[in-house]
Amino acid sequence: MNQGDKLTTWIGDWSDTVGLRAENRGNVAAVLVVLRRIKSEASLRAQLSEIFQQVDNPKWRGFAALSLFVTANEGQISGITGPRVQSILLDHQITGKYLGIDGGRSSRGNFRPVRNLLSSMPAVAIDSAHATEVEALIDAWEETIIERFVRPALQPDPIVVSMATGDDSEVILKRILDAADERSICGPVAQHLVGAKLERRYRKQGLVVENHSCFAQDKGLDRNADFTVHNFAFHVTISPTKALVRRWEQNASDSLSCRVLVREHQRESTKRLLESNTTRRVSVHGIESFVGLNVDEMSTDDQTDAVSVLADLFSIYNRRVREVERDSTGMEIEVRGQS
User: Fold this and answer.
1) What local confidence, expressed as pLDDT, does residue 178 receive?
2) Domain residue ranges in the chain
3) Residue 219 has pLDDT above 60, yes or no
4) d(CA 273, CA 281)
């Protein structure tokens, strides 16, 4: 086995025993920052090399080396900031936000994984005389950490919904939108639910329902609304404003009948925004009832139950999400307990 193969094997063994967990992002970030510093700072490697020569016991070597990475008051690992961690991840083509709003704040909880890292580190990782080999080793080390601990943490679980025969369609849809709201993606989920409903409703007529990323602006795409079917313009929003009212009325003046879709609890307040509407071609509907009522109608037409129609609807929804959204995993809907 050559030196490169030995290092690869060692990295794999290390990542299994060092105690990192994908869910503990602070620990993972601390290890990544420490590794990057060792890679880029020759003077730091020289200090580590001196400690390695003086201290034979790996455990005590880890404690001694740790002192090079803590702040002056010994309260935390230095240099762990959100931007610094994101810069490291960007080198691995990862753009998703990894640390939260207080991600720059480290704690003594990060000491143990960093100490384990330093106590188990092979001497070649700090050999200043072989900088190229050091860089290759740490690059491979980083990649292992990224693949085992970072990427899994940035792949959120889908929105899970349980359904059983007899469940009310509107209640199920409300649960989904509430769950999406907790993830701050209620607007995108609502838009794609409406798109899926329209596609299923009109697919027998061969009508293609447009599909756009929820992060694309209507105006930039030269479209009047989120969806236009025949002479109906559908606007989906969870934040109705007077500025949007003007857009809806503009669409109505262009001989389109506007269907404004908001959360059920926003329906009455949105109607009040439209009190000055004189064309009467703008109507307001709750998303839950708009999609849910049509589910009940489609189940009657298809001579099946509403739960089966919803399962088909969510399948269409997931496909549409994957077609246009870059990060779709956390937006997808998974049905469990269907009966």
Assistant:
1) 93
2) 3-153, 159-336
3) no
4) 14
Q: What is the CATH number of domain 159-336?
A: 3.40.1350
Is the pLDDT at 32 greater than 70, yes or no? yes
CA separation, residue 272 to residues 150, 266, 276 (Å): 47, 10, 9
**Cβ-contact 173, 292 below 8 angstroms:** yes
CA atoms within 13 A on the CB side of 321: 25
Q: Which amino acid is at 33?
A: V
Residues 6+ apart with CB under 8 A from 214: 187, 188, 191, 192, 325
Please name which of 141, 153, 33 lies closest in space to residue 94, comparing C-alpha atoms. 153
- Say how far apart CA 154 and CA 95 lie, in whole Å: 10
* β-pairing verdict for 159-162 and 257-262: unpaired
User: Would you list the DSSP string of 100-139?
Assistant: -TTTT---GGGHHHHHHHHHH--GGGG-GGGHHHHHHHHH
pLDDT attached to residue 56: 87
Neighbours of 166 (CB within 10 A): 9
End-to-end CA gap in the chain: 55
The DSSP secondary structure of 210-238, one letter per residue, reads P---TTS-TGGGT-SSSEEETTEEEEE-S
